[in-house]
Amino acid sequence: MQEAAVRSLLIATTAAVASTAVATLAALGTARQGRFRGRTAIYALINQPLMVPEIVTAVSLLIVFGVIRSSTGYQGLGYLMLAHSAFCIPFAYLPIRARLENMDRTLELAAADLYATPVQAFRRITLPLLMPGIIAGAMLAFVISLDDVVITEFVKSAGQDTLATYMLGQFRRTLTPEVNAISAVLLAITLALLTAFFLITRKRA
């Protein structure tokens, strides 16, 4: 159980960081470029995990990673980290994109008038203003990854159980006080992060 808990935290943290970084770049690219050809297709690609049933995504990842496994022989946690990161991108993207759309660009324009370079304006103006959305997106991605069962069950190799799949295996056998305690802890963590997400987004609004 301890190994499963550490593995879950490692995968969820990696997925949250990676998906938030990609989501931030995607939000900046789609929100600040105005209308351009292919914008709808990009939105659909980013939000694909939200529109397609999770089981379909899991089977697709299983097929792709199966080919990679057979050709490379690699059986590590990289598959789970990559799968969770890809699945969590839209969950991180939505609050970041919403934050960008509600931001007042006056300060950025003022920085440009004062001869700040684009990098300086982003680092000193845009990023601090965008940080509540980034934090909210990262927390949401972390919760989604931590609680995921379907994708993990399809993608994981032998001996790579997370807390969610470990609990599923225990449920199939018998309920124990250990499983009840894990469920309570996971529920408390999820509620705490979702409450923080709500407070951050409410303060932002």
From TrEMBL:
Its main location: membrane. The chain crosses the membrane at residues 6-29, 50-68, 74-96, 125-146, 181-200. It holds the Pfam family BPD_transp_1. It is found in: Cell inner membrane; Cell membrane. Keywords: Cell inner membrane, Cell membrane, Membrane, Transmembrane, Transmembrane helix, Transport. Belongs to the binding-protein-dependent transport system permease family. CysTW subfamily. This is Spermidine/putrescine transport system permease protein PotC. It comes from Rubellimicrobium mesophilum DSM 19309.
